[in-house]
Amino acid sequence: MTFFTYEITEFVDLYIVLILAYAILIMSSYLILAHLSTKELRNYLKRNSFIDYEVLLSSEFAPKLSLIAPAYNEGFTIEENVKSLLSLNYNNYQVIVVNDGSKDNSMEILAKTYDLVLTDLIIDAKIETKEIKGVYKSRNAAYKKLIVVDKENGGKADALNVGLNIAEHPYVVCIDVDCILDKDSLLKLAKPFLESHEKRIIATGGVVRIANQCVIKNGRLIEVNVPNVMLSRIQVLEYLRAFLLGRMAWGRLDGLLLISGAFGAFDKEIAILSGGYSTKTVGEDMELIVRMRRYMLERKLSYTVSYIPDPLCWTEAPEDFKIFKKQRSRWMRGTIETLSIHRKMFLNPKYKLLGMLSVPYWTLFEFLAPAIEFIGLVITVLFIIFGLINWHFFFLLALFVYTFAILFSVIALFSEEKTYHKYPKQTDFFKLLMAAFIEPLYFHPLAVYAALVGYKEKIMGTKGWGEMTRKGFTKK
Amino acid sequence: MEKLWNLYKSDDWVHPFLIVSIYIFIAASFILYLLIIASRNKKIRQTKLKIEYDVLIDTLMSSVIFEDSSFTIVSENQKFKKLFENTYFREVLTESIINLHKNYEGVYAQKIEQFYKDSGLINDSFKKLRSLKWEVKCKAISELAEFKITEAFTDIISLSNARNKTLKVTAISAAIKLAGAESIKYLTSYTDSIDDWTQLNIIGAFKKHDIGDTKGVEFLLESENTTVVALGLKLIKELKLTQKVPFVEQLANKTPNLMLQNEAQSVLQTLTV
Predict the structure, then answer these.
(1) CB distance A393–B19 less than 8 Å?
(2) What is the pTM of this model?
(3) Are A248 and A37 in contact (CB under 8 A)?
(4) Which of B248, B249, B254, B251 is nearest to B236 (CA)?
(5) Does residue B78 lie in a domain region?
(6) What is the per-residue pLDDT for B105?
(7) Closest Cα in chain B to A63
(8) ipTM surpasses 0.85
């Protein structure tokens, strides 16, 4: 019995050390990334204040872009969204809307609004896709930038691949058609492609922010507000942390593994040579970047991925748990699939920083974190049941994690305040501050649960996105 | 040290560590909260001040531009005299007169330039030019170039070799504004590679400042530096300098560099068709 008690005590001690070590490791990594991000952000803003984007606007040497917008059942908003895409501040670009076999009247609306006519465009299908029913152009010269492709349903990745096949220009910008883009977004996204002679810029990513409750007029964001619904309000904080304190640092380290599918630009040649978007994963955005990087590294080609911290793309966040769960479980499936496809890179020095740091970081803190938290929870419950819990230590540890979570959110708010200051209203700031206190108790358990559902779906072999219902933006 | 090691070995460190960390997190959060509040208040104060200053500056500058008031007359006003000692006021004033200068031409623009010199704001700009911070230097360059202070050309052109790319681009654009084609001869001897973004800015500066005299652009085509040659070709193409066609033809026939050859052919096609 004494031996048994000794064994249990040893196990409890080991558990405490491991859980504490994991917490300290994750917290330190967050703080290091936040420090790097802040430094980089400050430099970027300084540099940016002297940049005259007009030179890009007026020059024929500006990179030529093809904007690809896949659309599935977007009938309610497609007319306005496409109009806003056609009126961006940029000259050398075309808009390719890919109707991915919508079941609603998206195609009819597009045909009527933009006076579309079927063309006999010959497509050089470098990437295999589902059948294309027709390629349309407008009879109206005002819409000469627009190409609409009607195709059989094949998912977002397949629609983006059709766009890659059709794109005439060397750079493609992949966006979600329902996102609100800043008028200068293409100018900012295109600039990095001109900036390096030594390294080839294979992709540029932009920041995505939450647009719930914001006021939109003619497809443009005119007033930024903090959402009233707590679930989406906390996502504002979450996006601030992820984009301002996380990805900026990975950008600086040149270890970015993800460019959001909602808004990113790619070197078309490399994207196609790497095989285009994978239709086998729901995390096609992350998977493409990893594959493009892998393609360059395996051929020892000098390259980099650039990152723009300006809030250029605004999207709608889920407001109810059902949709949120679908989104997050899909994100987790995407992460698992990408890490699994590219498992060869894990701690492989051949892949340099990517193999030695980015992939292990994602594995440990993005893929495994929910599982570790869940196991921790189960063990804690068992400790309570068997009377092994040291309540004093338990509360201290919980408070340690809780206060850090608040601190990290406050750092994100501070960073936002000192940089973009998009929430100038006092009430909005206090709403976000309050959300920081509520998040660890309300949002975080939901996010972990959704991620666990993602694990389950992956094990059960669930495929596809599932229906993502959106409420639409507040319009003026 | 030994004390710390013993503490670690005895496992007694966990609780104090957690307690100290919690205190640190709370204190850091509170400090950051105070900093956010302070920053927001500062922004509000500065916005208010700026509105106040803008009204005063509007009155001041309209009397300078339209009523021929010189700085000597203006400086007799005690209120303005006091405000001129305020750094933030001088910053707002510089910004305002730059904007005014961009919108006016001829005599009015000259009056603003004179005011910039008489008021001593020009000295502020020269002082900024000597700063160790590149962003302050950039600001100074923009100010001096806007008011066409040619005395600053030598300092500015020397900064076109700076390691910092933003400073380099700002300096080259300003040099083009100040000396037009004269600055080309500096580009000819450039050894660093000039990336596409810098090239676009140089072309933009030529277009923006309407530099009609493009004498010497052809010398760029003779450079050993391929990026300088590429810039020359782009300049000829974008500014449609048909008189430079013979030099482009010569380059197309002579250069062993395939990329430059193609670019030269493309320029010839554009300019001769």
Answers:
(1) no
(2) 0.91
(3) yes
(4) B248
(5) no
(6) 87
(7) B196
(8) yes
Find the distance separating the first CA and the last CA of chain A, reported in whole Å: 73
How far apart CA B63 and CA B58 sit, in angstroms, is 9
Cα–chain-centroid distance for residue A412? 17
Mutation site, A19, A25, A50, interface B, largest B CB count within 10 A: A50
In terms of CA atoms, which chain A residue is nearest residue B36?
A414
CA distance A329 to A318: 13
- Mean pLDDT rounded to a whole number for chain A: 93
Does B143 fall in a domain?
A: no
Q: What is the pLDDT of residues A332-384, one digit of tens each?
A: 999 999 999 999 999 999 999 999 999 999 999 999 999 999 999 999 999 89
Give B116→chain A minimum CA distance, Å. 21
Note the pLDDT of residue A439. 97
Which of B20, B29, B195 to mutate against chain A (most A CBs within 10 Å)?
Answer: B29
Chain B residues with CB under 8 Å of A51 CB are 166
Tell me whether B161 touches chain A (CB under 8 Å): no
Per-residue confidence (pLDDT) for residue A466, from 0 to 100:
63
Q: Containing domain of residue B193, as a range?
A: 157-272
Per-residue pLDDT, B213: 63
Answer yes or no: is B135 within a domain.
no
Residue B216's pLDDT band (cuts 50, 70, 90): confident
Q: Is residue B172 part of a domain?
A: yes
Q: Is A43 helix (H, G, I), strand (E, B) or coil?
A: helix
Distance of CA B125 to the CA centre of its chain: 12
* Structural domain total, chain B: 1
| 3-class DSSP state of A315 | strand
